[in-house]
Amino acid sequence: MTPDEDLHPDDVQQHLREVQALLSRQRLVENLVHRQDMPRHDLVENLVHKQHTAELRHKLDALHPADIAYILEALPLEERRFVWDLVKAERDGEILLEVTDAVRETLIEAMAPEELKAAAESLDADELADLAPDLPAEVIQDVFQSLPSEEREQLRAAMSYPEDSVGALMDFDMVTVREDVRLEVVLRYLRLFDDLPDHTDKLFVVDREEHLKGILTLETLLINDPEKEVSELMRTEIVSFEPEDDADEAAQAFERYDLISAPVVDKEKRVIGRLTVVDVVDYIREESDAEILSHAGLREEEDIFASVWDSVKNRWSWLAINLVTAFVASRVIGLFEGSIERLVALAALMPIVAGIGGNSGNQTITMIVRAIATGQVQPDALQRLLRKELGVALINGLVWGGLLGLLACWLYRSASLGAVMTAAMTLNLLLAATAGVIIPMIRSRLGADPAVGSSVLITALTDSGGFFIFLGLATLILL
Fold this sequence. Notes:
Layout: H1 11-35, H2 41-61, H3 65-73, H4 77-86, H5 92-98, H6 101-109, H7 113-121, H8 125-131, H9 137-146, H10 149-160, H11 166-169, E1 176-178, H12 183-190, E2 202-206, E3 212-217, H13 218-223, H14 230-233, H15 247-257, E4 261-265, E5 271-276, H16 277-295, H17 308-335, H18 337-342, H19 345-373, H20 382-412, H21 415-445, H22 454-478
Parallel strand pairs: 1-2
Antiparallel strand pairs: 2-3, 4-5
């Protein structure tokens, strides 16, 4: 992308359409040429192919790595690999970092070991740590041996931290200065850099042993007298992190304090890296995507153009659970076949009870999972949350259940049926509220992801429970 070219969110869709149009035109023209009977047919076909390939390569060369990643994710496997082969080799590493894990796997499969090594060597240590789990072991070993000793230690450190920790997100590219120097010296020092690290809004002030003493913002550096010392102007109230800190808590701190960057220190308060808003935003996006998928019972992110077998493996487990729960629900209905035969209205009304209960339960579970994720809820808050959600469910059950009860009474000319409808709705909403609080809280207390399969579980419970409550009350009261 040229330096004067602006990035716009809508541009990526236009780029995708242009690439798809070029691919479509290439297929069309090459098919027509292939069918023609002409002199030097192979030469003409080869020239046409090179012309379209050159046009497509020129288009890709002008795009940002993130835009190329988006385009690759939106293309079927065969076209994706064709486009991937046209990308300049020196950009492979950047693009591999941008694509989703599922798409990255398909790209890496198409690359030779020497290509993977070249792509990995073009990355910084913190970026390489993100890519390393997807690379073959022999490639990582070769890359590791080729790194300078300092970067080798940085890579080893970055790979040693859990995925959801600050250490896994931090980078090592930062600027530190001493507290006993003048601002003029700092300015001359900064002019030695070709480029400052991305998102540098502050300099970290350290002593000779790299212990963190304070921060000096670029704004402070630029607007004050160059003859003043750093120690006079640096701020000592610092938001800093340790590499073992939870990434979710760090993300909340970035949001709370409007941070752009923050130092990462070890136990002795020595600066070992920094965390930037870009790292945090990427983490939040990945966590959000994972939560959406797990809420639907998907084990991992899925390439939309993946093979049938890969998609089946990703989806089968919770579908199997859903099948079992659906069978249980059907057997609950089977217990009351006689009641349904004697009062057909029950068959028409029971899906309403189950459906409203499922929606209410999903609302509750979504609120609780979000609160757990943002750190607003601790495990000891179970009883308080349960009382609150039961109160909400009771009011909703009486109001909306009463409304449905009146409607059932009017439709079927039966006050008793209306009362059963109201009672069943209220009881099922209470069941949904209880499950919506208890399921994620217990999973969180056990160290499991509270969002995984939650919608599947709550729907299964409110379906079976709703059918049993409604049909059971109807059998006791109406028949």
